[in-house]
Amino acid sequence: MKRVYVNEKWCLGCHLCEYYCAFAETGEKDIARALKTSKIKPRINIEEKDGVSFAVSCRHCTEPLCVKGCITGSLSVNNGVITIDTDRCVGCYTCILCCPFGAISPSETGAVQKCELCVKTLEGEPACVKGCPNNAIVFEERGVNL
Amino acid sequence: MKYVIIGNSAAAIGAVEGIRQADKQGEILIITNEPYHTYSRPLISYYFSKEKIKTSVKAGDLKLPHTENNSANTAFGGSPMKYRPADFYKDNNCELIHSTAVQIEPKKKKVMLADYSLVPYDRLLVATGSSPFTPPQFENLEKKHNFITLDDAIKLEKSITENSRVLIIGAGLIGLKCAEGILKRVASVTVADIAPRILPAVLEDESAKILQSHLEEKGIVFKLSTEVNNFDEYDIVVVAAGVRPNVELLRGIAEIGKGILINEKSETTAPDIYAAGDCTESLDVSSGEIKIMALLPNAYIQGEAAGVNMAGRDEPKVFDKAIPMNAVGFFGLHVITAGNYNGEVYTANTNKDYKKLFYSDNKLNGYILIGNIEKAGIYTSLIREKTPLDTIDFKLICEKPGLMAFTKEERLIKLEGVS
């Protein structure tokens, strides 16, 4: 299955992936208008320190501790993509307790949020991949199972 | 192959999904003594506060197909309480029996049901959960309620009025979630515990005080280090004084300590009999002790391992990383904890947030986070994987959990798909 992989050597730390991620959720046409006044809550996050930077988003593990631990059944695997049913999530944060990558976060709605590879919003490559100016985030089949 | 599963909650569902990973054909029979589609037990506290949950339950959305009317039963339907979609049993080709297993005959490989009928099995899973413990002084108390099952919640909801003065015995997770759930629906909620602090099995003194203040601000009254024996000033008493694993079916058949002893493959000591979930005890890798870790994630993962191994997959499924852990929120304040609280302590408290990490012998033993719980799972993974702390930037990760604290090689594995 194709997943998002990051190449920290090429990451500029520009945070554009975070903006494209947040934009993809809005359903708006114009990124500036969509994001101008709001503090973004992206599903991909840049970690950076001492000149090193890289993006972290859901790994879509084949043995997903978040899905196995979910107390409501709101997290599930659909064709390899781990998705969240925000209507049913009660925001207990057991998935945040379980995820070894820190890739699930609280959201303003009360439900958790996570990368769903843009399957609900876009066709083709996820927005972070399309928007990365230096190919530091790619969408590839690497056959590795986490 | 004929699989029989006693129970219909997280461990049982994990087993069904585990069996079907390895065996699409074998017969699966689930014996449940509740008349419901599999539902999320921890959600019963939301029965009081989330209108959608209550109305869907009242509409019969959770009722099993062969018990009473079932008209609302579509997909997840309107029921946020369903632990799996409405078609789960059909999709996984399982049969459900609404009955109680009363006896196991291991030599004949049969389970006897309440009507004395016998159900044969090739592989059996005992996922019987736990039952509320009732201290003797509450045995005959008429206004006594429990708070474990959906029926308990339905009964309690029918009994409360806006004038009810409610006493909850036990300041554990069940008692406090019950208190949170009903607070706005009743006149007063008092929580009593013989322990000196709330969540005695989850928090230590300092963090318990922080959470207690938060709950008191919301209106909950606490009587700690107190044994209440006079109930006259209360209309309703909810006994949440802990639970006992349901082990009786395997008494004399498999080794039982406090719970049914299982190994990392979810096998009991009896051949072809597996167990998973709240009825079991197993190894806590954070402390090296055998204990009951009655948590939904452990129940599911043990159940899944049992299922795969019952189906006899060539490569057994092993769950050897169980640790105590909890994620819970009360009125918007979130608490996440894991492991044990021994060793040296790293503390970082602000007005809003509370953090304590416990470590010794180059290992993280446990942690407590209140407020800011972001990326807590990175700490959990350090405990679970017994990551040597000298292989990561421990100072950095104490301040801020993140993958930055790991070596570049480790990040290549985690983020770039290098194996």
Task: Provide structural commentary.
The complex is a heterodimer of chains A (146) and B (419). With 146 residues, chain A is α+β, with helices and mostly antiparallel strands. Chain A folds into two domains: 1-57 and 118-146, Alpha-Beta Plaits; 59-114, 2-Layer Sandwich (Alpha-Beta Plaits). Chain A is built from five helices and eight strands. Chain A has helices at residues 16-26, 31-35, 65-69, 94-98, 127-131; strands at 2-6, 45-49, 52-56, 75-78, 81-84, 105-106, 112-113, 137-141. In chain A, the strands form four sheets. Chain A has a two-stranded antiparallel ribbon with strand order 1-8. In chain A, strands 2-3 form a two-stranded antiparallel ribbon. In chain A, a hairpin with a 5-residue loop joins β6 and β7. With 419 residues, chain B is an alpha/beta fold. Chain B has three domains: 2-38 and 83-130 and 244-310, FAD/NAD(P)-binding domain; 134-239, FAD/NAD(P)-binding domain, CATH 3.50.50.60; 332-415, FAD/NAD-linked reductase, C-terminal dimerisation domain (Enolase-like, domain 1). Chain B has ten helices and 23 strands. In chain B, strands 3-2-1-7-16 form a five-stranded parallel beta sheet. Chain B has a five-stranded parallel beta sheet with strand order 9-13-10-11-12, with helices on one face. In chain B, strands 19-20-23-22-21 form a five-stranded antiparallel beta sheet. In chain B, α5 links the parallel β10 and β11. Chain B is globular, with a radius of gyration of 22 Å. Classes of the chains: A alpha+beta (146), B alpha/beta (419).
Q: Can you describe this structure in just a few lines?
A:
With 146 residues, chain A is an alpha+beta fold. Chain A has helices at residues 16-26, 31-35, 65-69, 94-98, 127-131; strands spanning 2-6, 45-49, 52-56, 75-78, 81-84, 105-106, 112-113, 137-141. Chain A has five helices and eight strands, in the order E-H-H-E-E-H-E-E-H-E-E-H-E.
